[in-house]
Amino acid sequence: MAETKLTAEKRTSFGKGAARAVRRADKIPAVVYGHGEAPLHVTLLGHETLLALRASNALLDITVDGQSHLTIPKDVQRDPIKGFIEHVDLLVVRRGEKVVVDVPVHVEGEAGPETVVQQELTTLSLEAEATHIPALVTVSVEGLEAGSHVAASEVQLPSGVALAGDAEQLVVVVSAAATAAQAEAELEAAEAEAGIVREESEDEAAAPAESDES
Fold first, then answer.
1. Do 84 and 110 share a structural domain?
2. What backbone phi and psi angles, to 5 degrees, belong to 164?
3. Cβ atoms within 10 A of the Cβ of 25, count?
């Protein structure tokens, strides 16, 4: 993974008011920590940081007062409504060091006819060398029939990358698509549970009632 170089300034004011002032200046409060070093509180340029963090597990070379810190983002806090970045935790890493990170899962291919593909996991916990973290891992469902599944242990990983989470976790499940009758029955059951009463259509209202007489 290519490194992105960012310049940061030391931050000496703390608290919600100070953080809001930083963000008003189009900057992002952050903390750099790890390897037994004292946490380093900094501010990052907002636009540059936003672009850098578009990539999952971005490798960031942070320069503070002329000193370089190789880091990866461990926590990116965003405003739940507007989506802007509120704060970033950056973990210091070293070249050759292995780290455990969550890597996005991308599902590709077309499963067999009349099937539904359910992605159970959107990320996998992997152990990788800090400067060679994969951007994503791919799972193919090409031609898989109903009843098939792909477990975490079956996902093809790049060389030098190992699974760090539960090997038996299901990543993808392929099921038979519901028939029209099954879909209608499920809808009626859900409506009944919610207390929804359907109004009769004109055709249903006009249909004669069945007689018990022969």
1. no
2. -110, -15
3. 11
